[in-house]
Amino acid sequence: MNGLLSTRTGWVDRIAEEYGRGRPLAMLFDYDGTLTPIVRHPSLARLTSDTRQRLQELVDLPEVKVGVISGRALSDVKTLVGLEGVYYAGSGGLELDLLGTDERFPDTDAIGKLIDGIQDQLVDLMRKFPGTWIEKKPGAISIHFRGLLPLAATCFRFEAAALLSMLEELRFRVVSEAIEVTPADGWDKGTAVESILTHMENSLGSPPLAVYFGDAANDADGMVIVGHKGGMSIGIGPDAPEVAEEQLADPLELGANLDKLTTRLKTRWEISPKTAEKSLRVENELTVNNSISSSAAAEVDAGLLLLDPDGVSRKKLANELEKLGWRVWQSETPEEATQLLIRDGNKIHVAMVDLQLPGLQGARTLMEFGQSHPHLIRCFMSADVSPYTAAAFARLSSLPLFVKPLFADDLNPLFRTLLKQENPKRSLAEADSSPASEVNYDSLPKHLSIRKRAPGDRLPGVGSRSGGSSTRQVDNR
Ligand SMILES: [Mg+2]
Prior knowledge:
alpha/beta, 3 domains, Rossmann fold, single chain, binds magnesium ion, 16 helices, 8-stranded mixed β-sheet, Alpha-Beta Plaits
């Protein structure tokens, strides 16, 4: 961040795109200066109804988790935000509420003992600067000076820093026109973010994309942790930490961008009028299904949705798969396939869609399937794929493309292997966000000619059988 305010919204695009590909989200907000403007007294920093509504809308979205991480006492920030289903951290990370599970830094009396050593000097200093006052919190104190004029505030900060520096066991930083004092070896917003993200990941079943919004020095610890986990940080206002990747002018601009973001996130669930509630139910059921043991995964009735307007090849392949223990849903049109997925999505693990549907219906349908059912294993199939078509397809999608005619003997071990992989949720369906090479092709039966393409390698020989099998994947990194 270069210190100049900018209003880039690339972060909105990235969040929306990753969520669209099935990545859950962790949206983490500081309170003062981020969700609310800095005001004359902390007690006046109330959340507006619009901001509360924005947070509520995020909480209500499937696979989106929300946390508020504040320097205020935990009870204070929980009362001010007043929303259920939100993770809270108070006292700069010394107190946590992980959706009902409370955690607290073991030695919250430490700060009192430490401050005792400079108690008299601190009282004398504050008498020199009328308008300063101390806020005691569990495990921390804040020395507020927002009532001072700028010159007096600068003098006070200088003298207070000199005094507090006498105790190495203290950590102090200027945060929102106050000096936040905590034990040097205590928890902070970074440890709070780690605890919250761990809890969220356990709840979601996969690591979320973490995004941290903060305005002051004590937010840097949280931003660093988020950065280590591949997330991003958005600074609010001119005093935001340098580590923030992008910056917004103030809480108002944050609100406007959250409105844009939420609108885009909601579109992931607009595959049908029944949408979010239905999809969430299906997803939860899939999660339960996915929790069964790996060995059992191959033995249970695995479901496959086959969208192919060619009735002859569709029925032939369906019959073959059913003989191998698959339950197959057949459909001739995208509309019919969508209805089947909405109705029986909790039983369907794999979707195969013919790319040769008129227009871009095949590609669009499979993309929508991935948005509404992120854990679905998805692949395209097509007859007479030319190298030119394959190359064009590869530029547009990283999903696998199999060339017809297809044989159940080839597909069965492939899909069952994917279902048995260590993380059952990991599948070809995630190839949009992950390199295809991360799928464990090495575990596939040797006779399959599925292969990874090395840089500079020619496309696999589309249209010819290989290794006694006709099931070939056009690698498309
Ligand atoms: Mg703040």
